[in-house]
Structure formats: structure tokens, C-alpha cells
UniProtKB/TrEMBL annotation:
It catalyses: adenosine(34) in tRNA + H2O + H(+) = inosine(34) in tRNA + NH4(+). Transmembrane segments: none annotated. Keywords: Hydrolase, Metal-binding, tRNA processing, Zinc. This is tRNA-specific adenosine deaminase. It comes from the Bacteria. CDD domains: nucleoside_deaminase. It comes from Chitinophaga pinensis (strain ATCC 43595 / DSM 2588 / LMG 13176 / NBRC 15968 / NCIMB 11800 / UQM 2034). Catalyzes the deamination of adenosine to inosine at the wobble position 34 of tRNA(Arg2).
Amino acid sequence: MDDKYYMQQALREARKAFDAGEVPVGAIVVLSDKIIGKGSNQVEMLNDCTAHAEMLALTAAFNYLGSKYLMEATLYVTLEPCLMCAGALYWSKIGRIVYAAKDEKNSYRRVAGATSPFHPKTKVEQGPCEEESLQLVKTFFEQRRK
């Protein structure tokens, strides 16, 4: 299994959010080729501004492992993390972050600038499925504006 396969699993989570009327972002945490955490945005459903896909996927992974660190794990997320999620990812010491699409409006880069808010050993890269992720977000907001 490769990055594209795992990002497609994150997109599956994003579609769940879309169908629930949430901003369509999905995330999964993978360790040793096994998905150990999943999340889709649930901000509206839970009335909780911290219920981002990344946060929910991290919590599921921590609970699965019984550990607060994910040094050997990879997070796949359909949209570049916001600053709040970047902070949680920093503290998790996650080994790798792969995101599908940049988020020019709400990403961690908007506040952090050139400084990376992630743990120094965390590798961050843009991965596959960018167009599909962007189209899902675009369609969501077009429907909301009608």
C-alpha cells in the first residue's frame, strides 16, 4: 500500500463529513501499514470547534496504542492542517504528515509563516489526490452559498 491508497482512505472520511454537512476534511493515522485512527470533521455535529478530522484521528490513534506519541506513524489528511491541529501534531511527535491539498486561507502557514510548527523530526509533504480534495471542498462551499 502506498500514499495514494491511504489518501483515498482519508478522502473516504472527508466524504463522510461532506454528507453530514461538515467541511469535508478527512484524516487517518497509519502505523506499520495499519490504519490505527480515523477522523472526519465533526465541528457542527459536536458543537466543538476543536473537532477537526486530524484531532479525532489522533485521539483514536492514541487510544489504540495507549500512548501519547506517534513517532513512527503517518497522518494522511485531505487538507493542510490548521495551526490548532499543527500544535497537536507537534505534541504527538508524529513521524510524517502527508496532506493532499494546500489551504491558503486556514493552514498553519498563514500564522506560522516560514517557521514550521511541527516537531523537528516530523517530515511534512504534499501528497496525492490534491484535485479530488480541492473539488470536494469547493463543491461543499458552493452548495452552502446557494
